[in-house]
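User: Could you check the structure of this?
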Amino acid sequence: MARGSEHVGSIFCGELAPQVTTVCPAFIDTGMFQGVKAPLFTPLLTPDGVVDAAWAGMLEGQPLVKMPWTVPLSGALRGILSPHAFDLIAGRFFGVYSAMDAWEGKYKQE
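Assistant: Sure, the predicted structure tokens are below.
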């Protein structure tokens, strides 16, 4: 899915197609994710770390940058496990589905 824009661009523009790097981070430690409890083994990423990884990926011509390592792991598990097994592992073991329960952004009053 993330590579779709690059593929379509190459069809219509050939060698002149712009190169695209899509960045898929987990939670970034900014005010937007205030109160988030990151899933097991998934650190809150720093803005500078995400920028550095995105920049490095762009310079290397990577079409897709996933971070941290648990993001591509999640995709691999989703591909080999049944939906029920994936939901059980992601939800109960890793805490993916409850990560936003303590998120403060939607309740914040100005």
